[in-house]
Amino acid sequence: MNRAEILADADRCVSRDREAEYGSPKECLGLTAELWGSYLAQPLRAEDVAQMMALLKIARARTGTPKPDTYVDQAGYSALAGELAMEKEE
């Protein structure tokens, strides 16, 4: 799998497939931020959750057997984090 294929798969996942299954990433990551923030007793933002999920994928890539899905998900979470961060700036 090359970089263009990884990015195309990530786009498909975060822009269509996952949203159809789980709803808006902003809502889902926002709710996750509330739940994790409550557990950690500190506020988190939706983009923090996306960044931490990308870090989870980095950890899996480092400790596990390489799988295309790991890199697709990592790219997707990074894209979501960037979108959410830029949304706040606008």
Give Rg in angstroms.
13 Å
β-strand percent reads under 5%
Q: Describe the biggest sheet?
A: none
Q: Residue-averaged pLDDT, rounded?
A: 92
Classify the helix fraction into a percent range: over 70%
* Number of β-strand runs: 0
Structural class: mainly alpha
Notes on the protein architecture:
- It is a single chain.
- With 90 residues, the chain is mostly helical.
- It has one domain.
- The chain is 84% helix and 0% strand.
- The chain is built from 4 helices and no strands.
- The radius of gyration is 13 Å and the shape is globular.
- The model has no long low-confidence stretch (mean pLDDT 92).
List the helices and strands and how they pair.
Blueprint: H1 3-22, H2 25-40, H3 46-63, H4 68-89
Helix pairs in contact: 1-4, 2-3, 3-4
Primary descriptors:
single chain; 84% helix; 4 helices; mainly alpha; 90 residues
Briefly summarize what is shown.
The chain has one domain (3-89). It is built from four helices and no strands.
